[in-house]
Every structure is written in structure tokens, then in C-alpha cells.
Design brief:
heterodimer, A: alpha+beta, DNA polymerase, domain 1, 19 helices, globular, B: 5 helices
């Protein structure tokens, strides 16, 4: 840290005030010579040492022990030289503080991108040398804005400062205000130096409902039509009980990033998720396998070749191209990821310390950028978690007889390769040896069942199982400003396993344990049968290859972009249209206070690209048996394929979005209409949301939002139809000192169709058709408050009450989203403290108390007579998050 | 005027302190290892318990003996009180229609309160570039206090919204406190105006009496019901009693180093300590009726206890950072290593974290907040049948207890400060059912083939073991106060 001493009033100090004591330079001994007590001298010294230098002598009154009389007595004896400690890094950090807080707050959704953006906030890029991709990768900067700037620079004009930037023709105010903090014009605000960002985060949380249900599902013997079978009541017959997931088990993250300017970068991150071991208990091999790390070199302006930049990363990196259809490696799914506004992509190669584990790329990546041509190549070699085909272990006893054990081993084909159903991002990454013991325990129970069920775990998760090598590349040409054409491809090679996905009938018997439940395997489960196989009757290979073409152009104030991708299956690589494909195209028109976004997408069912992360309403496997009927699965943890799916569901449809600011009083917030069809079962849906904000004066904003979704709107007699409405009214007040108070009320309705069933033969007089329709209502009330004691400490808090009655509510907290079902109350408080200019501490505590569904006790699969019915079960959850950051 | 104001403050203070000396109880889970008092200094408590480097309060040297001379006061005195509310909820597992374990229903809730106090006194003096200090403290080290009450009822008439009959009442009433009285010597060496090294040693005597009582008492209704059928039918009450006395001594070494005006580092270590635990354990089964039959015999089985009780090695390192901030700020952070393998190889060693901040937000009014995460071990034994042989199985279960804290202080008068600290901690873990259900099987005492006390004959009363344990959720609310005087 460099400090600059600005000494003003030097002449005054030497001349007029030579005999006075300078409060900002005097030693403690010198202060004690003043006509004050030793304690007062000490207090003055401590104030200067631990709070700040004096701007004037009257600041002495801020010290509790200095009263007015003392000050008057001291006034002729003291002087304050203007002593200012200026640290350019601190000054820069203060300047961008709000944006940093906003990025941290959105980290939960941006998944690692905040790191990159924070770096650019601290050490901005030279606006006059930025490329199109650089500009549109920044949050809330549109392609139209980017082209406006690039055209101006191409004309030989140099943008001199922020005011000059504002004068750029075609640049919207929105784009300008979001861009200005990420760029510099002539001189960077900071010179190149070492930056260090360390973070320790301790966070306790509870499993989300889906994962909790999944782990609770028992591995019990089937008793179908066999009442003599006794079902034991033992918690350890489920993953939940076996692995003691009831325990309070915090997640701990250690993260360290270092960089020299924007050139040399290095980082390390270890994340111990709930249910997994902490770094202190991991072996070096485990840390190497599960942690994230990288070293990288970036130079936006190579010395030899003009206008050419390079990025080289070793270790973990992210690769994102086009619309994320071919390659965007993340484990996290976000609905309606348009690539505009806040749901941006950082295009190209970037370092990766996100919590993404399954789709992490580990290896080497090189990117060379030029205004006309951009090329990148990347290689990754990593072991991936997978759903693996299992069989019982066999061995020979002393007599040479084959003995079957309840231990499981992976199935191997004649070539020795294992068989894999698909990738999986486990909710808990259980150790493989522990899983093996658990499966032995479960199998012992399962084999006692009837013949109607699969009596062992034929599919199971395995951590770091699949050897995957990825070779990928991206080439892009940009003959004109704003026009670019790109080609992306990657090939994932599997050295030790084949992806095997049987046909409908065989898959049904494979993943459903009890034949009684085979009818549950419905049309929507095409999503599972559509998984990619490396081995089928028509072809055999050991890889998966995806090829993509993307394009982008800006015409006037309209940006058109799109991507087409194809997964190589039966067809030829060089021929388009002969394999499962997906495409997306969007047009974005921008005016000063208005934009329109129109987007069309169409993803084939069999386009199974695990590395895609693009726009959709639903994630892959949504509504399938993996989500809805976990209890039918041969292994409940198959549901993790859905629980943590990051891929888009196969769907096609058109999406419109707009935002319009009428004037300073009225704004139509982000509003959209999506009409789409889910391709697996042809369900057609429509979703609409609109928001109106009225701001009669700056301190007050009143918002009204309406959301509506209709599923299966084309056939109201179908069981899948539902109509949801959500009405929200909120009032926000922006108080003095950046304090904030908000009230929000939400009212929901969900309408379901009449569910009819015939219980007797449908003849006159004998028809006992039961029909009912449901209308569920729910509401939600929230009060949010933020109070800043001063600029370095603030308290955020919220109180929520909700009544769901079958409806799920959501709530965005300080930096995470929470889903709430049924009814309950929740309160949280977070203290954010800036300990010093480098150190930040956040402690957040939350209590959520809610009632859950109805439960009843049963004994041995038979209801207990008498009182066994629990109408509601109360849950009380305490969670805490501690985050300690050091930024140097 | 000053006197009146101070007097008023002292009166308020006396009320606060006095109110904290009435009730007593602790968590029922830690009957073997007890409940450790972490940091009774109210200032450090409000900062997550972090205070290995602490130059602010006279009680600090009870955590690290080197803090005695770090304080740089000729004389110091502090008294702390602690008031705790413990809520213990025990749930039994529920199964849904698919026999899946889904969640829990609380079957007993116990709320108990306890209080304790600690005090310290010190004196130190500077001679040249060194300072020498002596001090003594008295504080509770481990509490074995616990109270638990549980009712066993059948389900008769519950559908009519009335209370079902109470069959028996289970109780745990434990009392016991290990007190630690320590004598501390510390020395500081001043390297220059700012830097200094303090080293200290703490020798303490530890002693305490523990009495644990676990009872099952049949209700009059139960006794009457069986006696009405046959006067010879009696139901035996059950009692487990343990009375022991623990004695021993502990030594602790510490150092606190002021590196510069902003940073201090400190460390303390107390090696493995062995206490002598002597006493008796008895199981009593008593008849209620004086007209006893030969079906139930009164019994008293007593076993002598003479064993080593081990306190594990504890190493604790910490920092104190005082940056320049727009408000006076202290950051304390401690990391503690507890070598539980000293006690038993079945236990892993654990790390505990303590973090706290003090901001003097406005006019010297401090706002303190902090966080700690403690890991402790739950120890239980269960009898299981392995290959037809009844064997004791030892269950070692690690429990994580996070706590958030907050607090402030008031300067009562010159040299006298009242600190207040509040903490909320919680933990969730599994535990063995403390009272096995087979004891309430009246068929065992009557010899009949049907229940007299249970209306539903299909109920199979069986002990739930570790395969189907209770889920326990505990919360702790703690209020600490500390009154310190320095001169």
C-alpha cells in the first residue's frame, strides 16, 4: 500500500503555528505536555491512531473525555495540519463500493462471475481498446451500446472521460451508467500491483425440500401383495439416517485470489458442502481432486502484435460461447437466462473459482483475441461424478463356487469399460467407499422383498468416476463492428466408461424398483430416454461431440444474435440437420427509455449436451419421475439428476421482454411474456409478468406486479392444466443515510382442473364419478429494513409471514433465495461490518419456523388404529452465515 | 451529582446481577463430559468468546494467563454472572404411508434455566522494562446440572380432546459443578514503547461434587389400575443414582505478544489433565406396595466408582486487530484445537472457531457481535446383541454448536464498567432414547398376556436403539454480565 502525504499549511506550521502542538503529528509524550489529563492525552492519541486524523481542532469534541471547556483551553495551543492518508486502492474501493455490494449480493445467481466483474471494477479496462465481447460481457451493457462505442473509437475518436462517454451517439443512459465504473479512458485509476482477495465462509443450511425427500426415501423390501413381509422402522434404511444427515453440518468455503494488475492471476477455492468432509480432514489427493485452482496470464494488448490480446489459464477455467448452447460450463441453472441485463454471460475464457464441480473444466485454455478474429482452444481432463450401472459383487469360495455378495461393483462390458447412465451433480458427494458400505446395508434389506421389485441397487452415484477429457475450440470472425460469426466445438472423450441408455421398456424396469409403479413412467420421461448413449445398436464410440455456430449482428438500434448447436449421434459431423439439434435466436431493440427483446428457442429432446446452459423456462428432467415420483426409483439418489440439473428442458417457444421508463414517476419494470411448448409431452404453457413502479418522489417507490402462468392452456380437460396468479404490491422508502424500508404483500392463487375418476362401471344409476377442482390461495407479507450506523457498518433485516396452502413462495434475502411452502414465519438479520479498509465481516442469522404437510404414523405398513394422525408438523430452522473477507 | 448518578447505576447493576442468581440447569445430553463454560467475561462473550489476546478486562487472564500483565493495570477486579435458558426438544421419528422416515414430532420439551458466577482479582507492577503480575480467579469449569421431565401416557380419549392417562413420569435431576480456582503469575517484557511480550502461567485447583439421578416413577393411576385387577400386582419405581467427587489440578501456559499498535497475537495451552473421580453408582428398583409379591423384588445394586476423568489438551491461538476505522474497532479471532483423542481414541480432535468485533458506534457506546462454532462429543453406550452375545457398543457422536453473540457496555463510573453479552446457540443431533419403552410394559410385572395400562393391545413396546434414535434440538440463550474495576 502506498501512502501519499499531502502536507498543506506547511508555512503556517513553520511560521504562525510553530509553537503549537500539531494534533496530527504530536507524539503521546508531546500531547501529555498539554494542559490536559494523561487520560485525555491518551484518548486524543488513540483517536488519531484508531479512528482517523483530525480535519480540524473541533473534532476533539468527538472524544468523550474532551469537553467544551477543555477544547477552549486547548484552542490557542493546538493546530491541525491537513494530514490525509490517501491510498489509491482504498479510494477506488470506496468509489465502487455500492457496485461491489450489489455484485456480492447477486453472487448466488451469477455463480462465480462476480469475481471477474469485481476485478474489472477494481482495475478497469481501457474503454478505447475493448472488444465487442469485452463490452457485452459486462452487466447491463447491451450490444447496441457496445457498437455505439466501438464505432466511435473506430472513427479514431478517443473517449476522454465519463462525460465524453455520455456524449457517444447511440449509447443509452442505462448502458453508460452501468459501463462507466468498469472502464478507464486515459490512465487507469490504479497502477498495476498485487491484489489479494481472501475469504472464509461458514454457512449452515438445510436441504431443500426435494433433496430432503430424496434422502428420506427408504430402501425397504417390497411387500406388494405379500402381507407377511415385515417392514422395519429404521432410519438407517434411508440415506438420510444412514449418513446422519440430520446433524447440523456447516458448509465451509476457503477462497483465495491473487493477481498482479489484470495480467497474472492465481486462485484457490475449497468448498466443503453439507454432508461432506472439511478441508482439514481431506487428503492431498482429495484436495487436488475437489478444490478449484488456477494460474493465468492475460494481456489485452500484446506488445508484438497490435490490437491483439491473449489469455492463458492453467487449472480451472470457464469457457462460454455464443448463447451457451454449445458450451457454458456451470452446475447452476437459472430460468430465463437471456444473456441481457443481469443474466449475462462472460464470453470466452475466464478463471473459475465457482462452486461448480461437475461441469468444471480443469486443464489448459488459451484464447487469442483480435478485433477481427478470436480463437480459443481448451483442454480439460477431470473425473466426473456419474450415475453408474451396478451389480452385486461375486467371488469364489474355497470350493470354487460363485458367491454373491450384497456389495456392489460397477458393471463392466467385455472391453472392461464401465457403464454410465449420465452425469450427476450430487446433493451430497458421498465418499465412494462409504456409499459401498451403505449400499451393502440397503441391499441386505431389499433382497428380503417380494419378487415384484428389483432387490438391489442397480444404479448408483459414484464420485470422481468418469474419466473425461475434453478438447474444445472456438473461432470467431468479426468482419464488421457488431457483426461476428463463431464456430464452437468440443469433444468429450470417455476413457473408462460408456454411456448406456436403454430403450423405453428397458429403462422403465431399470430405474423403477417395483413393477407396480411402471405406469408412472409417462410421456414426460422422454427426457430420460433422450439421454445420450455412446453405445447403441447403430453406433459405438467413446466420445460426445457438440458443434455449434453462433452469430451476432447489430443493425441500427437492434441487435440480433443466435446459436445453432448439434450433438453428433447418428449423422455426420460436417452435415447439419442430421442429428439432434438446438437453436436460439433473439433480437434486442433499444431506445433511450425502452427496450424490446424477442427470443425464440427450440431444443430437441435428444440434444443432451451437459455443457449447455441457455435460456429456458424449465430445467431438464422437470416433472419427470426423477422429480415427481422419487419413491418409485430403484435408487432415490437418481433424483439428483433432476435436483441439480443445469441443462435446459427440451422446449420450443417465443419470449418477449420489455422495460419502459415513462418518466421519473412511472416505470414499467421488466415485463415478459413467454409462450412455449415442452417437447417431451407437448404441454403448452404461457407465462406473463409485468411490473409498474410509481415514484411520486425519490424517497418513495410503490410497485405493483402481476404474474400469471397457465400450463396446458391448449387442453383444459387434461390433468396437467393449472393456472397460477400472483399479485404483489410493495412500498419502498429510501430513508436518509442510505437506510431502506420496504413492505411487500403478495397474493397467489393456483387453480387445478377437475380430477375425475370412475369408481364403478359408467352406466346409468351406477356412476359414482368423483370430480373436484381445486383453487389454492396463499399470501405473503414481508418487511425489509436496512440501517447504516455509519458507512462502515450496517444491519439488514427482514420479517416474513406466509401462508402457502400448497403454493410455494420465494424470497430473495441478502444474497440467497429461499423457497417457502405451507405456512410459517421467517426472520433474518445480517450485520455487515467493514473492520478496516481491507477486512470485511458479515454475520447473518435466520430463523424460519413453518408448518409442513400432514403426517401419520404407520406400523409395519399398516395404519395404527387410534390416534396416529398429525395434521401439521412444525419445523424450526436456525441458519447462520459468517463471512470474513480480506481484500488487499 | 456524580455520586447520585453512580449510585443509581450501582442499584441497577445490583438488580441485574441479583436476578441472575436464582435458577440452575444445563443440557441433559452432556452428562459425562459436562457442559463447558467457555468465556464468562461478558465483553469477550459478546464477541463470540474470542479473547485469547485481551488487554481490556481483568478477567481475561483466566483464559490466557499472559493477559494479566497485558492489561497494564496496577489493580483489577471483575465479577461476572451468567444466566442461561436451555430448551431441549426431543422428537421421535415419524413414518409416512410408504414407511419412509420423513420427519419428527416433538414428544418432550424441557425448558430450564441456570446461573453461575465467576470472579477475578489481579495486581501488577512495572519495574523498568518489565512488568510483573499476580492474580487469582474463581470460575466454573464444567457444569453437570441438568433437569429433564417426561410423561408417559397412553392414547385413551385423545380423540375426545382430553388428556390421556399418565402411566409414568420420567425424570433426570442432575446437579454438579466443577469449580476452578486458579493462581496466575505473569510477566511482561517491553521491547519498546509499543511492542511487548507477555508470558504467564496458571495453576488451578479443580474440584466439584456431582450427583446424577435418573428416575421412572409410576403414577398413582397406573398403580391403582394394576392393583384393582389384582392387589398383588405392583409396579416398581426405578432410580439410577451416581454420586461422585472430582478433584485435581490443571496447569496452563500462555503468551500474548503485542506486535505493534494494531496487532496482537496470543496463544495458550493447557495440557491433558487427569482428575480423580470417586464415588458410587446405584440402581434401585423399589416396590410401591408394601404387600409385595414374589413377582417383583426390590433391589439395590451399587457399584463403586474410582476412575480417571480426563480433560483433553487444549491449544488456543488468537489475534486481536485494531485497525484505523471511522469508529473505534477491535477484531478478535481465536482458533482452538482440542485434542479429544486424549480422552479416547474413538474421538477425533476438533477445531473450534471464535470471531468477534467491537465497534464503538457512537460516543463510546460499543456494539459487539460475534460468532463461534464449537464441536463437542456426545458419548453413549448401548447394549446390542451380536451373534447372540449381549455387548456394549460405545457411540461417539460429534455435535456442532454454533452461537451468535451481541453485546454492549456501560461505563458506570470512572474505572468501573458494566458489560452485557447475549448469546444464542443451537444444535441438532441424534441421541438414544433416554428411557426405553419396555419398562412401561405392565405385562412384565403382572404376568398377564394383555396390557392393563395400554388400551391398544397391538402396541409392541420396545426399546428404540441407535437404529431409530431421538432427534434432539436444543437452543441456548445466554445473558452474561461483567462488572470490572481497574486502577
Amino acid at each position: 500500500m502506498r501512502k501519499y502525504l499531502i502536507l498543506l499549511f506547511v508555512l503556517f506550521a513553520i511560521g504562525l503555528f510553530a509553537e503549537r502542538t500539531d494534533l496530527n503529528t504530536a507524539s503521546l509524550q508531546e500531547l501529555t505536555k498539554l494542559p490536559i489529563t494523561e487520560q485525555q492525552a491518551q484518548d486524543i492519541y488513540s483517536y488519531r491512531q484508531y479512528i482517523g486524523f483530525f480535519d480540524n481542532i473541533y473534532e476533539l469534541r468527538k472524544i468523550a473525555s474532551i469537553d467544551q471547556k477543555t477544547l477552549v483551553r486547548l484552542r490557542p495551543l493546538i493546530v491541525v495540519s491537513l494530514y490525509r492518508e490517501i491510498d489509491e486502492v482504498e479510494a477506488r474501493r470506496d468509489e465502487i463500493r455500492d457496485l461491489m455490494e450489489r455484485l456480492d449480493s447477486n453472487e448466488g445467481t451469477s455463480e462465480g462471475m462476480a469475481d471477474v466483474w469485481e476485478d474489472y471494477l477494481m482495475t478497469p479496462q481501457n474503454l478505447n481498446r475493448m472488444s465487442f465481447d469485452d463490452l457485452i460481457s459486462l452487466p447491463n451493457v447491451s450490444p447496441v451500446d457496445a457498437v455505439a462505442i466501438l464505432k466511435r473509437v473506430a472513427r479514431g475518436d478517443t473517449i476522454a472521460d465519463a462525460r465524453d462517454l455520455r456524449n457517444t451517439v447511440g449509447l443509452s443512459y442505462y448502458g453508460y451508467s452501468n459501463l462507466r465504473n468498469y472502464v478507464f479512458y486515459k490512465q487507469p485509476p490504479l497502477k498495476d500491483r498485487l491484489f489479494v482477495d481472501g475469504q472464509i465462509q461458514y454457512s449452515s443450511r438445510y436441504f431443500e425440500e426435494g433433496a430432503s425427500d430424496m434422502f428420506h426415501e427408504p430402501m425397504l423390501r417390497s411387500d406388494y401383495q405379500n402381507t407377511s413381509i415385515t417392514i422395519p422402522h429404521q432410519k438407517d434404511k434411508a440415506y438420510w439416517g444412514y449418513f446422519n444427515l440430520d446433524q447440523l453440518d456447516p458448509e465451509i468455503t476457503y477462497k483465495l485470489r491473487m493477481r498482479y494488475g489484470n495480467f497474472l492471476k492465481a486462485g484457490f477455492m475449497d468448498y466443503s458442502a453439507k454432508g461432506s468432509v472439511d478441508i482439514s480432514e481431506k487428503s492431498i489427493d482429495d484436495i487436488a481432486a475437489d478444490s478449484k485452482y488456477y494460474v493465468g496470464y492475460e494481456n489485452a494488448q500484446l506488445p508484438v502484435i497490435s490490437n491483439t490480446g491473449v489469455k492463458l489459464y492453467l487449472g480451472h477455467y470457464r469457457a462460454t460461447y455464443g448463447e451457451g448452447l454449445t458450451m457454458e460450463n456451470t452446475d447452476y441453472y437459472g430460468a430465463r437466462k437471456t444473456g441481457y441485463g443481469f443474466s449475462k454471460r462472460i464470453l470466452g475464457i475466464s478463471p473459475d473459482l465457482s462452486k461448480t464441480q461437475e461441469k468444471a473444466l480443469k486443464g489448459v485454455a488459451l484464447e487469442v483475441t483480435n478485433p477481427y478474429v478470436t480463437a480459443s482452444v481448451f483442454f480439460s481432463q477431470d473425473k466426473k461424478d456419474a450415475i453408474v450401472y451396478m451389480q452385486k459383487e461375486t467371488s469364489l469360495d474355497d470350493n470354487g463356487n460363485v458367491v454373491t455378495s450384497n456389495y456392489m461393483v460397477p458393471v463392466q462390458d467385455s472391453t472392461g469399460n464401465y457403464q454410465v447412465l449420465g452425469y450427476v451433480t450430487p446433493s451430497v458427494r458421498f465418499d465412494n467407499d462409504d456409499l459401498r458400505e451403505a449400499e451393502y446395508h440397503f441391499n441386505t434389506e431389499l433382497e428380503s422383498g417380494s419378487n415384484y421389485a428389483t432387490n438391489y441397487l442397480n444404479l448408483a452415484q459414484r464420485m470422481n468416476f468418469l474419466d473425461e477429457k475434453i478438447w474444445g475450440s472456438h473461432v470467431q470472425i468479426s468482419p464488421l463492428i457488431g457483426l461476428k460469426l463463431g464456430f464452437t466445438t468440443y469433444t468429450a472423450l470417455y476413457d473408462n466408461a460408456n454411456f448406456v441408455v436403454p430403450d423405453w421398456d428397458n429403462l422403465k424396469t431399470l430405474i423403477i424398483r417395483d413393477s407396480y409403479y411402471y405406469p408412472k413412467f409417462k410421456l414426460i420421461d422422454n427426457d430420460i430416454t433422450g439421454l445420450y448413449s455412446t453405445q447403441t445398436n447403430t453406433y459405438k464410440r467413446d466420445f460426445r461431440r457438440v458443434i455449434g455456430l453462433d452469430g451476432h449482428t447489430v443493425i441500427g438500434n437492434t441487435s440480433v444474435q443466435g446459436e445453432y448447436a448439434e450433438l453428433t449421434v447418428d449423422g455426420k459431423d460436417e452435415k447439419l440437420g442430421d442429428d439432434p439439434s438446438a437453436y436460439i435466436v433473439s433480437a434486442y431493440t433499444q431506445y433511450e427509455n425502452l427496450y424490446f427483446l424477442t427470443l425464440y428457442r427450440n431444443y430437441d429432446i435428444k440434444f443432451d449436451n451437459p455443457y449447455s446452459s441457455t435460456f429456458s423456462e424449465h430445467e431438464k428432467f422437470d416433472d419427470t419421475i426423477l422429480e415427481k415420483n422419487i419413491y418409485t426409483l430403484t435408487n432415490p439418489t437418481l433424483s439428483d439428476m433432476y435436483q441439480n440439473s443445469s441443462q435446459s428442458a427440451p422446449e420450443k417457444g417465443v419470449y418477449f421482454e420489455t422495460r419502459y421508463r415513462f418518466n421519473s414517476y412511472f416505470t414499467v419494470g421488466r415485463s415478459y411474456l413467454d409462450v412455449w411448448e415442452r417437447l417431451t409431452d407437448s404441454r403448452r404453457s404461457v407465462r406473463f409478468q409485468s411490473e409498474l413502479e410509481f415514484r411520486p418522489f425519490f424517497q418513495l417507490a410503490i410497485r405493483a406486479r402481476y404474474k400469471n402462468q397457465v400450463n396446458r392452456y391448449d387442453d383444459y380437460a387434461e390433468r396437467g392444466v393449472s393456472i397460477s396468479n400472483e399479485y404483489t404490491l410493495s412500498t419502498r422508502t429510501f430513508l436518509s443515510g442510505r437506510d431502506f424500508l420496504e413492505f411487500e404483500y403478495r397474493y397467489n392463487t393456483v387453480w387445478g382442473p377437475p380430477y375425475t375418476s370412475l369408481t364403478n362401471t359408467a352406466i346409468p344409476g351406477n356412476n359414482s364419478m368423483a370430480g373436484s377442482q381445486t383453487l389454492m390461495i396463499g399470501d405473503y407479507l414481508a418487511v425489509n429494513y436496512t440501517h447504516h450506523f455509519n458507512k462502515n457498518i450496517n444491519v439488514q433485516g427482514s420479517f416474513n409471514f406466509w401462508f402457502g396452502h400448497g403454493i410455494s413462495h420465494w424470497d430473495w434475502e441478502d444474497m440467497e433465495i429461499d423457497f417457502m411452502g405451507e405456512k410459517g414465519v421467517k426472520a433474518w438479520v445480517a450485520v455487515h461490518s467493514r473492520i478496516s479498509k481491507n477486512t470485511y465481516l458479515t454475520v447473518k442469522y435466520r430463523n424460519k419456523t413453518y408448518q409442513d404437510k400432514e403426517y401419520s404414523i404407520r406400523a409395519y405398513n399398516v395404519p395404527i388404529a387410534g390416534e396416529n394422525h398429525f395434521e401439521r408438523v412444525m419445523h424450526s430452522e436456525n441458519t447462520v452465515r459468517l463471512s470474513l473477507d480480506y481484500r488487499f | 451529582m456524580l455520586f447520585n448518578k453512580s449510585l443509581k447505576s450501582l442499584i441497577v447493576l445490583s438488580i441485574v446481577l441479583g436476578s441472575c442468581a436464582i435458577l440452575s440447569a444445563w443440557s441433559v445430553t452432556d452428562t459425562y463430559f459436562g457442559n463447558k463454560f467457555n468465556n464468562l467475561d461478558a465483553r469477550a462473550f459478546a464477541m463470540g468468546g474470542a479473547g485469547t489476546y485481551n488487554d481490556m478486562r481483568p478477567f481475561a487472564f483466566s483464559s490466557n494467563p499472559a493477559n494479566l500483565t497485558l492489561l497494564k493495570k496496577n489493580l483489577g477486579f471483575q465479577v461476572n454472572t451468567s444466566y442461561l435458558r436451555n430448551e431441549d426438544n426431543r422428537s421421535l421419528p415419524l413414518y409416512n404411508s410408504f414407511d419412509s422416515y420423513i420427519d419428527d414430532a416433538v414428544y418432550s420439551t424441557n425448558v430450564n434455566k441456570y446461573d453461575d458466577f465467576a470472579a477475578s482479582i489481579l495486581g501488577s507492577y512495572t519495574i523498568g522494562a518489565a512488568r510483573f503480575g499476580l492474580g487469582a480467579y474463581h470460575k466454573p469449569l464444567l457444569s453437570f446440572d441438568a433437569n429433564y421431565d417426561e410423561q408417559i401416557r397412553n392414547n385413551r380419549n385423545t380423540d375426545s380432546d382430553t388428556y390421556p392417562e399418565m402411566i409414568a413420569r420420567n425424570g433426570i435431576a442432575n446437579t454438579g459443578l466443577l469449580n476452578q480456582t486458579g493462581f496466575v503469575y505473569s510477566m511482561a517484557l517491553y521491547m519498546d514503547d509499543v511492542r511487548e511480550i507477555n508470558i504467564g502461567v496458571d495453576y488451578s485447583l479443580i474440584n466439584g461434587d456431582i450427583e446424577q439421578l435418573k428416575t421412572i416413577k409410576w403414577t398413582d393411576w397406573a398403580r391403582t389400575t394394576v392393583a384393582t385387577t389384582d392387589p398383588n400386582f405392583v409396579l416398581p419405581d426405578y432410580a439410577e443414582t451416581m454420586k461422585t467427587t472430582m478433584e485435581g489440578s490443571q496447569i496452563k501456559f500462555g503468551t500474548s505478544i503485542k506486535m505493534n499498535s494494531r496487532l496482537g497475537i496470543a496463544a495458550s495451552i493447557s495440557p491433558k489433565t487427569i482428575l480423580v473421580n470417586k464415588g458410587m453408582f446405584a440402581i434401585d428398583k423399589s416396590e410401591y406396595s408394601t404387600s409385595a409379591t414374589n413377582m417383583v423384588d426390590a433391589s439395590h445394586v451399587e457399584t463403586a466408582i474410582n476412575e480417571d476423568y480426563i480433560l483433553p489438551t487444549e491449544f488456543r491461538g488468537g489475534i486481536c486487530y485494531q485497525p484505523r476505522n471511522i469508529m473505534r474497532t477491535w477484531l478478535n479471532m481465536d482458533l482452538e484445537y482440542v485434542q479429544w483423542s486424549d480422552v479416547n481414541e474413538a474421538f477425533d480432535d476438533v477445531w473450534n472457531l471464535y470471531v468477534g468485533v467491537e465497534h464503538q458506534v457512537d460516543n463510546h457506546l460499543p456494539l459487539r457481535f460475534g460468532f463461534q462454532s464449537l464441536q463437542s462429543w456426545q458419548f453413549a453406550t448401548e447394549q446390542v446383541v451380536v451373534n447372540g452375545v449381549s455387548t456394549d457398543v460405545y457411540i461417539a457422536n460429534k455435535i456442532i454448536t454454533p452461537m451468535i453473540t451481541a453485546g454492549s457496555s456501560i461505563k458506570v463510573m470512572k474505572n468501573v464498567t458494566l458489560d452485557l453479552g447475549f448469546g444464542y446457540a443451537w444444535r441438532e443431533y441424534e441421541a438414544l432414547d433416554m428411557f426405553g419403552d419396555t419398562y412401561y410394559n405392565d405385562k412384565l410385572y403382572t404376568g398377564r398376556t394383555s396390557y392393563l395400562l395400554w388400551p391398544n393391545q397391538y402396541i409392541a413396546l420396545a426399546d428404540r436403539g441407535w437404529e431409530n434414535p431421538d432427534k434432539v434440538r436444543e437452543s441456548f440463550m445466554t445473558l452474561t454480565t461483567g462488572l470490572s474495576f481497574t486502577w
